[in-house]
Amino acid sequence: MSTVSQPPSAPAGPAGEFLHDFLLAAARHTPDAPAVIESPRPGATTVTTYAELGALVDAYADGLGALGIETGSRVVLESDTTAPAVAALLACSRAGLTFVPVSPETPRQRLESILATARPALHLQAADGTRTGLPPTTGTARFGPDGLTVDRAPGPHRPRRRVPCVTDPAYIIFTSGTTGRPKGVVMSHRAVTAFYRGMLAHRIAAPEDRVASTSPLQFDFSLLNIGLALGSGAAVVPVPPQLVRWPRHLLRVLRETGATQVNGVPSIWRQPLRYEPERLAALDRLRSVLFCGEEFPLPELRRLQELLPAARIINCYGATESMAASFEDVPRPLPDDVERLSIGVAHPGAEMLLVDASGTVVDRPGVPGEIHLRSPALFSGYWDDPEATRAALVPDPLCPQSGQVVLRTGDLAVRGEDGAFFFRGRTDSQVQINGNRVELAEVERRLTEFPGAAAATALALPLPDGGGLELAAFVVPGAGRTPPDAGALREFCAAALPPYMVPQQIQLLDALPVTANGKVDRAALADAAARAV
Ligand SMILES: Nc1ncnc2c1ncn2[C@@H]1O[C@H](COS(=O)(=O)NC(=O)C[C@H](N)c2ccccc2)[C@@H](O)[C@H]1O
Questions:
Q1: For ligand 1, is residue 266 a contact (CB within 6 Å)?
Q2: Tell me: the pLDDT tens digits for 338-359?
Q3: Strands 98-102 and 46-49, bridge-based pairing
Q4: ipTM above 0.90 for this complex
Q5: Which of 225, 317, 343 is the best mutation target for the ligand 1 pocket, counting ligand atoms within 8 Å of the beta carbon and taking the most?
Q6: CB-side exposure of 505: number of CA atoms within 13 Å?
Q7: Fewest Cβ atoms closer than 10 Å to its Cβ: which of 4, 187, 225, 413?
Q8: 324 in ligand 1 pocket by Cβ < 6 Å?
């Protein structure tokens, strides 16, 4: 076999099956269109065009190429979502490297756990990044307006691989594993671009859109937003996490950048709805809202619809193991009798089916089952965790002989008469209280029906004597409403729920604690409840 000094150029997959090809293809014809619009400070709005983004990608890819890092190596990319950060992840893709996004707010111990697991060749941060003390086995570099600056070159290695392949990992997202050790969700180029194709078939964004992304880069919601914007030839408007948390800052960024779509987890709306309803209603360019990650409390969703009556609101459901699965418009207005939101059906090219506890496929309306997802966008597996991978990627229940695997989501749903799915919580959110099965979402829903309650979270907590579980609940009052009384809330629950579903303790909170990805932080609530006993 001939030895070649230069690797043959990677065979491009079908048009744009590599992440960088896919995301830069849409705007080859519109180089001067805005790709990223940022407004870190009042009056300091900057636009990066597709041509400028492409030039940054070239500069960073050259810098990475010069380091001679072996194809398939990992690069930890520590940054908020910015134009240079988007260019850096695209440059990793072009250089045949797998990027591992982490937020600058990632605690050191968690970063060290990710470094020990992913064993990256390089840690890459922004020019003004503050991370120090990286292990000597990891190269370090920074990306800035003029290219890469290498602080410490990656260690020498004997390259065994030279040709990038579309089944290579494009990125690894580390999620908080239930076992405490972060799980690395490995997504190939083929999977993520297959997902992007399915999502873009919904025509959610158009070239004139400006898609605000309010999630940290380490959360694949940000990667969905980048793909949605760039894949549509539109602009992404990254909102730094430290601005998302302050309603006035968030609304200023949306106003000054002319955002036409705002994508985020439900919790980003809680404070703006409560403290800045007028400024929210004044965002007259805002024409769509997309949310994901957890159920949107219905009182807050209804309030959002009141303030943004013209906005299309999309409920996006899915897991990091396939980036997402479905996109469903919320009825406008949401009928009063709706208790659970539809998650629709899987995006084009994918299919959800329900499997009951016995492993039988459920195909009758109204019968609950666990969502299994058949999709070309399924993850490759959990990094270095074959056992967890086998538990998630299971044989196709309809045709196990085929060798095809489907994603076992851990989510419960029922089908409506029209075939759409209705989310029914996690399989692990079914708890046993005094031997009775309790669906926590049912308790939460009853609590949010109380006049003046905007959101609620219910938890099953171990009894102090260790003998079983008891229900605790946390309720956030609505904007400008008299805060509900805990006793009245208990009576309200008792009027509609069996005794074992009435929370023993109910705490009123000004806000629910959220994780780094913006989801309700149930672990923090459990700790607070334990301390309150
Ligand atoms: N719209 C929902 N209603 C209700 N429960 C939900 C919903 N979207 C997720 N979830 C829940 O969140 C779980 C997935 O959690 S996750 O792996 O951390 N990933 C995410 O939350 C974000 C996900 N990758 C994503 C990114 C971008 C767009 C859509 C979805 C799902 O299995 C559901 O339990």
A1: no
A2: 989 999 999 999 999 999 999 9
A3: unpaired
A4: yes
A5: 317
A6: 18
A7: 4
A8: yes
